[in-house]
């Protein structure tokens, strides 16, 4: 990994540690495949808990689920600080990203499979449900699909406690169909959407970056593109392609697009070129009256990175109780 990418990686990891998060890993057995899931979490969530006193403050939990691209430290660096003032965080690295992996057969790779691994992490390896904590789930892009699946499963695995009563999806087309993939592939100048989302070379990565950001940098040195490609896109590329192909559809799961019991916040970038902004309202229509849409002006697909202040303000107002907002929580 080149110096510039290494430096950025160190900066983002430092932002996580400054927010009180620790890196860890666990072997989760969601489906008999012994997946290894790497994650970041606050110490109070780790087993054995480092805060076992009866008077220890038990905060609600927020699970942050990343999309395709670099490590979650890159994707959620601007959120962990503000969120950690009010919540205990769990930030998993999805399977086939970073060092998280599984021996499961390729035919089983899906957003539901990813969610099952995270659910097993929460239930078996973290101090979440025993203390009956609230669990909110936040996902961006592909991570939003995983977040939806996780939110669906939380009420049953929590045993009546720790119900995921709020879900946030960011630039995540939960009603995506084959025609949407075809339109995105055409926009990216490729034959299949997998070529765009899992680029094989520097040209493909530049194409993806140009579509993801509303105002992309005018110049990115070739050595940075090359290092990003090698570190975060070329690794396990075939498995990532299978993840895209394995996204669960309504045909496979007739209940997939049913309204959820949780309150849902849908956040979208005004100029999202991956999933056009009108998709936000189609997602809301599908999710029903408990869903709310917030559009962040002058941002693209990575709204949480392009305007983190507005994104964080919207997120905290949704997740925090009204009493905390009235008291000026930030």
TrEMBL record:
Q: Where is the signal peptide?
A: 1-19
Protein name, per record: AB hydrolase-1 domain-containing protein
Against Pfam families, the record matches this protein to: Abhydrolase_6
Q: Provide the transmembrane region boundaries.
A: none
Q: Which UniProt keywords apply?
A: Signal
Q: Which residues form the AB hydrolase-1 domain?
A: 62-313
